Amino acid sequence: MQVQIQPLSDALGAEVIGFELSNLRDEETISLLRESFLAYHLLCFRMEPLSPSNFFSLGSLFGTPQLQLIRRERNTAVPEVALFVSTYEKETDKPEDLNEVRLSGWHTDDSYFEVPAKATLLQGLDIPTIGGQTRFCNTQSAYEDLPKAFKLELYGKKAVHKYDTNRAV
């Protein structure tokens, strides 16, 4: 099946239909994915769970994956991949190797770096039927929709997001 892109809304997002791991080597598909990411800002792949190495390979299509700031909780084989577990309810459910699993610290987009990553990849392995929402927004579109007077008021200002503080700078 040929890979297809189906827009999810006018604001952002598109579903990638028909993608398989073998597509990781197909230049036409890679170009389509890169162009679609730039156009829609968010791509949704509905597929079987990816191993850390395949997850890394998929991410590499969009740029060089970077290591997260939290260094103690990484996959030993693929350190650019971090596994989060939030579903255990009792002590016996806790993962055996806590060095490879993050149990908190959900801010994974690394937006606190001076030059943040271009993209964040998330893979839901155990998705709740209700709740658990992750929300995305198109800040470019939101800015473009602002009144001109408000854009002028914002001109020249900048925001600072720091890892080590939650206070305004």
UniProtKB/TrEMBL annotation:
Keywords: Dioxygenase, Iron, Metal-binding, Oxidoreductase
Oxidoreductase found in the keyword field: yes
UniProt xrefs under InterPro entries: TauD-like_sf, TauD/TfdA-like, TfdA_dioxygenase
Name of this chain's protein: TauD/TfdA-like domain-containing protein
Domain TauD/TfdA-like: 5-167
Organism ancestry: unclassified sequences, metagenomes, ecological metagenomes
Ranges that cross the membrane: none
Classification via Pfam families: TauD
Organism this protein belongs to: marine metagenome
